[in-house]
Amino acid sequence: MLWSRLRTRSAPVLSVPRRPGYAPWAVAAVWFVTRLWLVPAALKLPTFTGGGSLDPSVDRMYRGWYAVLSSGTFPVNDVSWQYPPGAALPILAPGLVPVLDYGQAFIVTSALCDALITVGLLYAAVRHGRPFAGVWLWTVAMAVLSTLPWNRFDLQVTAVAMAALAAAASRRVWADRVFGALIALGALIKVWPVLLLVGTERGRRTRVAWLSMAVAGGALVAGFALAVPHALGFLTAQRSRGVQIESVGALPFHVARHFGWSGTWAAKDGSHEFVGPYVGLVSVVMQGLTVLAFGWLLWWRWRSVRTAPWMLADAALTAVLLFVVTSRVISPQYLVWLVGLAAVCLLRRETSQRPVAWLLLAACLFTTLGFPLLYRELRDNGDPLAVANLFARDLLLVGAAALSAVRLWRAGVPARQP
After folding, report:
1. Environment class of residue 134 by beta-carbon count within 10 Å: exposed (0-12), middle (13-18) or buried (19+)?
2. Spatial separation of the C-alpha atoms in residues 330 and 325, rounded to whole Å
3. How crowded is residue 379: how many other Cβ atoms within 10 Å of its Cβ?
């Protein structure tokens, strides 16, 4: 009897991975059906939309940038160009697609990025036995955002950021160097991927990742600056930015318009912004909140224990959320960044950000209702339905940011012993 008990206790417990079952096929089918409709709709194929011109951002703005960049210089005196020099890469990439018109080629390259992201999430879930919630979130949220993701180059930079997090999660010898290099590339397309550095583990991993980011970023910036004129013009492009009409800071002015406020909206710096009394004050307040958010992230980094493998992605989502809700500008495509980071978080069962991810999915719905469906009514006369929709979307984002920060703090900062 005793011997049998000892044998039972000492027998190793074999871990048998669960088979994915029908989950990968189900999510792949949903992805295929939604993209089979949305990508042709973005291409304005007559069968799906009755024809018409492509989205103005692609057909006019990006096409114009492509023509200037192809001539060997960055756009000068173009208020809509406010991006680091790496943004030239996704703008020029459609030129490598044969046969297709530039606008169609841009949408096709965006669709390819979407497909690569989905395959990467599916591979992580199947190969490593991770939850399928991340790929479900990505598949459904991009569909909820309608044709918007394929008409912007945010899919491309989000793919780079997600690849950086995937590289860091591998914990191989080269992982931190690749993570840092990809962060540098993403930050040179749109600045926000640099926030992914906030959650790096103390010690060697932080030193290697940050040094790699600095070296790769410096080399890329130097290469652009030496090769192409006006590569660094973006450094001063954001100075005159005001309060964009979809931002959190714009909410009081949407209400004030109905109570005699004398301000209005104007097309400025490539977006629609409020101009008038108190707008400058709100702009300063929003910038102050951004500084406070950055200070809180530094305080969390100082206090937290960041050894858990899921902490890097969770911290990245919190950081980007905080900077989105305190920004003077919230464009609809910002949801693509947030959903991409949330999808990576959901690949881990231990993530602290699960409820945050579902709040973001709800925010996607209100984002699509607001743009393009109710955008004109919101901008021109502050229609109550459009304003209510914007309040719902922005308050969901604020709530998601607050919840994200609270859960990240509780997950990463050890409780003080009495």
Report:
1. buried
2. 8
3. 16
How would you label 272-297 residue by residue, b for 16+ Cβ within 10 Å and e otherwise? bbbebeebeebbeebeebbeebbeeb
Contact 224, 256 (CB under 8 A): no
Supply 43's token pair.
């291409």
pLDDT in tens, 97-141: 989 999 999 999 999 999 999 999 999 999 888 999 999 999 999
State both tokens at 254: 């949407």
pLDDT per position as a tens digit, 357-397:
999 999 999 999 999 999 999 999 899 999 999 999 999 99
- 170 phi and psi, to 5 degrees? -70, -25
- pLDDT surpassing 90 at residue 344: yes
pLDDT at 6: 36
CA distance 395 to 302: 29
Cα–Cα dist 13/294, whole Å: 46
Which of 207-212's residues contact partners 24+ apart within 8 Å by CB, and which partners? 208/176, 208/177, 208/180, 209/168, 209/176, 209/177, 209/179, 209/180, 209/183, 210/180, 211/180, 212/176, 212/177, 212/178, 212/179, 212/180, 212/181, 212/184
Distance of CA 153 to the CA centre of its chain: 11
d(Cα 45, Cα 375) in Å, to the nearest integer? Answer: 24
Output DSSP code: residue 234.
G
Write out the two tokens for 37: 């409709």
